[in-house]
Amino acid sequence: MCGIVAYIGHREACPIIIKGLKRLEYRGYDSAGIALLNGELNVYKKKGKVSDLQAFIADKDTHSHIGMGHTRWATHGEPNDSNAHPHYSSSGRIAIIHNGIIENYASLKTLLQSKGFTFYSDTDTEVFINLIEDIQNENGCTLEEAVRLALHEVVGAYAIVVLSKEEPNQLIAARKGSPLVIGVGKDEFFLASDATPIIEYTNEVVYVNDYEIAVIKDGKLNIKTREDVPTTPYIQTLQMELDSIEKGGYEHFMLKEIFEQPRSIHDSMRGRLIAANNHLIMGGFREYENKFINAKRIIIVACGTSWHAGLVAEYLIEDLARIPVEVEYASEFRYRNPVITEGDIVIAISQSGETADTLAAIELAKSKGATIFGICNVVGSSIARASDAGAYTHAGPEIGVASTKAFTAQVTVLTLLAMIIGSKRGTIEDSKLRQLMIELENIPAKVEKALELNEKIVEISEEFKDAPNCLYLGRGYNFPVALEGALKLKEISYIHAEGYPAAEMKHGPIALIDENMPVIVIATRDSSYEKIVSNIQEVKARKGRIIAIVTEGDQVIPAMAEYVIEVPETSEFLTPLVSVIPLQLLSYHIAVMRGCNVDQPRNLAKSVTVE
Which residues are designated catalytic? Predict the structure, then answer.
């Protein structure tokens, strides 16, 4: 979940690394540090944001053409200067940055202490670099060989970069379970956790695979396996544009990404859906079409917001394709003994494509013979490579830690997938399918219209910004939306919020309702409409403060609710794509009014690459 960046080449390294760390800060922002090599191996690090590090080094001699930096999300050891990366080895000869977690660090640390090694932090990472140094001392080998041997001894996940005072023209990097990408320029190389720090300088990249070691030395890149077998680097061309990772005039990335959704939804359909031509296709589906047609069960594994998108997909696939669907938290799925057969299809959903629990769930399912269909946003990511087939969402980079456009892009792709499966299985009538295609094509315009509610939502946010608790209710397709709305509020405003199926309110949560409790009810006109109206009446009878998301023109609910937000009418199957928009805006504005850091909420990071 940390961000790592490194540079070797003809430019000044420090400005590139600092700018790269700022672009990676959504991955962790407890502390930051930089190592620069110019005769001496100098490490500067500071608790806090990258801007604090930048201020700290302002009066330092940072001239160097090789260096590395790190922005941290704390796993081992509290956020402070000592635990910040990079970490020196005991002798100070070599330094490391690390994204991941070393599970057997305690036993390794005890062994190293018995050999006289001194530790100055509480981190597993310092153990890692001292292990490398110990192996080099014991064997008299090169640093590259010492890194390779150390990788056989550590258990866990890592993306590392190692820098040595004694080899000023060399960077060594390796990965297992944590992302690492190398940008290839003219006589220069850039390393980072993802492509955002690289795209300004080159669009030619190499994605390092698990158990690979990359050595950049004297202007050349060589990659070997952990078993010392050379591999040929596969250079890919990025399709990312620099302006996609800038704020573009918005106050926060989150707000920009909320307003990008008409485009990101359209991009997720582009080439896959043309209603006028009855064109409905998904490239990744073709090879495994028969598997989907004959599937007895689909299992969806995901975490967080992606899990909510998976819940929407459960409704869609069961409604349209008539295949039983189970939606699992990846973090729980991997630690029990699930029944998986060769006939099962596992759909793995992840914005980053690097979510550690989801990757582990994929490996478990693959070991049982299941077919893996990955849905993620990042080209070349680990989940994309681990899947048998899949689809990219094409949402574009999402920098805000709280996912917004990733959710609607995932739901869009999952909707397309459900429609395609239903069509191939003959469980959806042609007329119904065509109507859905037309409706889905119109969704970007309806989302655009829903975004026009922004000013009204600002007024509602002002009224409820100081609420200590909040309840979200929905039924059917809007139940996952209620969960997602509550999660957004929790993530960025730190208000306790819970999402419930509206009918479950009577089974406990109704005890919470009083004249101070805001209750957000997603009550668009659908097959559950009469039931949700009854639930609203139950809340009103107990003096709950009702904010209702309703379909345009609703004449019933406005008489009951204190505040009403009208969204454009659409097919029940597609409701989540529209009804979630006001909830995103509500959480955003409440958080801003509470003075919260919207893009970098406390204790969170964008990509959960450790368990």
Answer: 2, 606
Contact residues for 596 (Cβ-Cβ < 8 A; gap 6+): 492, 493, 494
Contact between 320 and 419 (Cβ < 8 Å):
yes
Q: What is the pTM of this model?
A: 0.83
Question: Rounded CA gap, 139 and 556, in Å?
Answer: 79
CA 266 vs CA 89, 185, 253: distances in Å: 50, 33, 20
What is the spatial distance between Cα 274 and Cα 264, in angstroms, rounded to a whole number?
16
pLDDT in tens, 364-410: 999 999 999 999 998 878 898 899 999 999 998 888 889 999 999 99
Tell me: the pLDDT tens digits for 34-49?
A: 999 998 999 999 999 9
Instruction: Give the C-alpha distances (Å, rounded to integers) separating 115 from 92, 95, 106, 148.
Output: 16, 19, 15, 21
Please, what is the Cα angle at 603 between 601 and 608, to 5 degrees?
Answer: 100
Q: Is 63 exposed, middle or buried (0-12, 13-18, 19+ CB in 10 A)?
A: exposed
**Stretch (H or E) spanning 317:** helix 304-321
Using one digit for the tens of pLDDT, what is the confidence trace for 112-171? Answer: 999 999 999 999 999 999 999 999 999 999 999 999 999 999 999 899 999 999 999 999
